[in-house]
Design brief:
- It is a single chain.
- The chain is built from 11 helices and no strands.
- By secondary structure, it is mainly alpha-helical.
- The longest helix has 20 residues, at about 50-65.
Protein backbone atom coordinates (compact mmCIF):
# COMPACT_ATOMS: atom_id res chain seq x y z
CA UNK A 1 0.00 0.00 0.00
CA UNK A 2 1.28 3.44 -0.81
CA UNK A 3 1.09 6.56 1.31
CA UNK A 4 -1.30 7.90 -1.32
CA UNK A 5 -3.76 5.07 -0.54
CA UNK A 6 -3.62 5.65 3.21
CA UNK A 7 -3.99 9.40 2.66
CA UNK A 8 -7.28 8.70 0.88
CA UNK A 9 -8.71 7.15 4.08
CA UNK A 10 -9.87 10.25 5.89
CA UNK A 11 -11.46 8.80 9.01
CA UNK A 12 -12.19 5.79 11.10
CA UNK A 13 -15.75 5.47 9.82
CA UNK A 14 -14.42 5.29 6.26
CA UNK A 15 -11.79 2.73 7.28
CA UNK A 16 -14.36 0.54 9.00
CA UNK A 17 -16.74 0.89 6.04
CA UNK A 18 -13.97 -0.24 3.66
CA UNK A 19 -13.11 -3.20 5.86
CA UNK A 20 -16.78 -4.16 6.13
CA UNK A 21 -17.35 -3.82 2.37
CA UNK A 22 -14.38 -6.00 1.41
CA UNK A 23 -15.18 -8.50 4.17
CA UNK A 24 -18.77 -8.78 2.91
CA UNK A 25 -17.52 -9.40 -0.65
CA UNK A 26 -15.29 -12.17 0.68
CA UNK A 27 -18.17 -13.76 2.60
CA UNK A 28 -20.50 -13.47 -0.41
CA UNK A 29 -17.99 -15.49 -2.42
CA UNK A 30 -18.21 -18.29 0.16
CA UNK A 31 -22.02 -18.39 0.17
CA UNK A 32 -23.49 -21.59 -1.20
CA UNK A 33 -20.13 -23.09 -2.15
CA UNK A 34 -19.57 -26.81 -1.80
CA UNK A 35 -17.66 -27.30 1.45
CA UNK A 36 -15.70 -30.32 0.23
CA UNK A 37 -14.46 -28.34 -2.73
CA UNK A 38 -13.46 -25.38 -0.53
CA UNK A 39 -11.01 -27.69 1.22
CA UNK A 40 -9.62 -29.27 -1.96
CA UNK A 41 -6.61 -27.76 -3.73
CA UNK A 42 -5.18 -28.15 -7.19
CA UNK A 43 -1.64 -29.61 -7.17
CA UNK A 44 0.84 -27.03 -5.93
CA UNK A 45 -1.89 -24.54 -5.04
CA UNK A 46 -3.68 -23.48 -1.88
CA UNK A 47 -7.30 -24.46 -1.33
CA UNK A 48 -9.92 -21.88 -0.44
CA UNK A 49 -9.66 -23.21 3.13
CA UNK A 50 -5.90 -22.54 3.07
CA UNK A 51 -6.49 -18.96 1.95
CA UNK A 52 -9.07 -18.43 4.70
CA UNK A 53 -6.71 -19.85 7.35
CA UNK A 54 -4.01 -17.49 6.06
CA UNK A 55 -6.34 -14.48 6.31
CA UNK A 56 -7.41 -15.49 9.81
CA UNK A 57 -3.82 -15.81 10.95
CA UNK A 58 -2.69 -12.43 9.60
CA UNK A 59 -5.74 -10.69 11.10
CA UNK A 60 -4.79 -12.31 14.41
CA UNK A 61 -1.20 -11.10 13.92
CA UNK A 62 -2.44 -7.57 13.21
CA UNK A 63 -4.65 -7.62 16.29
CA UNK A 64 -2.18 -9.14 18.73
CA UNK A 65 1.14 -7.83 17.46
CA UNK A 66 0.44 -4.46 15.86
CA UNK A 67 -2.52 -3.35 17.99
CA UNK A 68 -1.81 -5.05 21.32
CA UNK A 69 2.01 -5.20 21.16
CA UNK A 70 2.35 -8.95 21.76
CA UNK A 71 5.86 -9.89 20.56
CA UNK A 72 5.81 -11.27 17.02
CA UNK A 73 7.57 -14.53 17.89
CA UNK A 74 4.88 -15.31 20.48
CA UNK A 75 2.05 -14.71 18.00
CA UNK A 76 3.90 -16.76 15.38
CA UNK A 77 4.75 -19.42 17.99
CA UNK A 78 8.38 -19.59 16.87
CA UNK A 79 11.76 -19.12 18.47
CA UNK A 80 12.73 -15.41 18.59
CA UNK A 81 15.88 -16.16 16.55
CA UNK A 82 13.73 -17.65 13.77
CA UNK A 83 11.79 -14.41 13.48
CA UNK A 84 14.75 -12.69 11.83
CA UNK A 85 15.86 -15.76 9.90
CA UNK A 86 12.55 -16.59 8.22
CA UNK A 87 11.23 -14.52 5.36
CA UNK A 88 7.58 -13.79 4.61
CA UNK A 89 7.24 -16.76 2.25
CA UNK A 90 8.74 -19.10 4.85
CA UNK A 91 6.39 -17.76 7.53
CA UNK A 92 3.42 -18.23 5.21
CA UNK A 93 4.57 -21.80 4.52
CA UNK A 94 4.75 -22.46 8.27
CA UNK A 95 1.24 -21.04 8.75
CA UNK A 96 0.01 -23.19 5.84
CA UNK A 97 1.56 -26.34 7.32
CA UNK A 98 -0.08 -25.68 10.68
CA UNK A 99 -3.49 -25.21 9.08
CA UNK A 100 -3.48 -28.47 7.10
CA UNK A 101 -5.03 -30.75 9.75
CA UNK A 102 -7.74 -28.21 10.58
CA UNK A 103 -11.29 -28.59 9.32
CA UNK A 104 -13.00 -25.97 7.19
CA UNK A 105 -15.50 -25.40 10.02
CA UNK A 106 -12.65 -24.70 12.46
CA UNK A 107 -10.95 -22.31 10.03
CA UNK A 108 -14.22 -20.45 9.40
CA UNK A 109 -14.93 -20.21 13.13
CA UNK A 110 -11.50 -18.72 13.77
CA UNK A 111 -11.80 -16.38 10.79
CA UNK A 112 -15.12 -14.96 12.01
CA UNK A 113 -14.05 -14.74 15.67
CA UNK A 114 -10.74 -13.07 14.87
CA UNK A 115 -12.36 -10.63 12.47
CA UNK A 116 -14.97 -9.65 15.07
CA UNK A 117 -12.26 -9.10 17.71
CA UNK A 118 -10.16 -7.06 15.28
CA UNK A 119 -13.03 -4.80 14.25
CA UNK A 120 -14.04 -4.32 17.90
CA UNK A 121 -10.47 -3.29 18.72
CA UNK A 122 -10.28 -0.91 15.75
CA UNK A 123 -13.50 0.74 16.92
CA UNK A 124 -11.75 1.69 20.18
CA UNK A 125 -8.71 3.29 18.55
CA UNK A 126 -8.61 6.99 17.76
CA UNK A 127 -8.09 7.56 14.03
CA UNK A 128 -5.19 9.95 14.61
CA UNK A 129 -3.39 7.16 16.46
CA UNK A 130 -3.74 5.00 13.35
CA UNK A 131 -2.00 7.70 11.31
CA UNK A 132 1.03 7.63 13.62
CA UNK A 133 4.04 5.45 12.79
CA UNK A 134 3.48 1.78 13.52
CA UNK A 135 5.73 1.32 16.56
CA UNK A 136 5.86 -2.42 15.97
CA UNK A 137 6.78 -2.33 12.27
CA UNK A 138 10.54 -2.05 12.16
CA UNK A 139 11.28 -3.73 8.84
CA UNK A 140 9.03 -1.46 6.77
CA UNK A 141 8.45 1.86 8.56
CA UNK A 142 4.87 2.92 7.88
CA UNK A 143 1.80 4.32 9.61
CA UNK A 144 -0.24 1.88 11.68
CA UNK A 145 -3.14 2.64 9.33
CA UNK A 146 -1.15 1.11 6.48
CA UNK A 147 -0.56 -2.07 8.50
CA UNK A 148 -4.31 -2.23 9.16
CA UNK A 149 -5.33 -1.74 5.53
CA UNK A 150 -2.66 -4.15 4.24
CA UNK A 151 -3.88 -6.89 6.58
CA UNK A 152 -7.60 -6.31 6.02
CA UNK A 153 -9.04 -4.74 2.85
CA UNK A 154 -6.05 -5.29 0.59
CA UNK A 155 -5.46 -8.79 1.94
CA UNK A 156 -9.12 -9.80 1.44
CA UNK A 157 -9.02 -8.52 -2.15
CA UNK A 158 -5.73 -10.28 -2.92
CA UNK A 159 -6.88 -13.66 -1.60
CA UNK A 160 -10.37 -13.36 -3.04
CA UNK A 161 -8.81 -13.18 -6.51
CA UNK A 162 -6.78 -16.30 -5.72
CA UNK A 163 -9.85 -18.13 -4.39
CA UNK A 164 -11.92 -17.16 -7.41
CA UNK A 165 -9.23 -18.66 -9.65
CA UNK A 166 -9.23 -21.82 -7.52
CA UNK A 167 -13.01 -22.02 -7.80
CA UNK A 168 -12.94 -21.59 -11.58
CA UNK A 169 -10.88 -24.78 -12.00
CA UNK A 170 -12.78 -27.96 -12.82
CA UNK A 171 -14.21 -29.73 -9.78
Amino acid sequence: MTDENTDSVTGKAELLRSIRRDWDVLLAFLDSKDEARLARAQPGQWSVKDNLAHLAFWEKFLLLHHLQQVPAHLVLEIDPADLHRLGEDQLNQLIWQRSQPRSLADVLRELHETHARLVAKLETIDFESLREPDQIETLIPRPLLESVVCNTCEHYQEHLKTMQREWSWPA
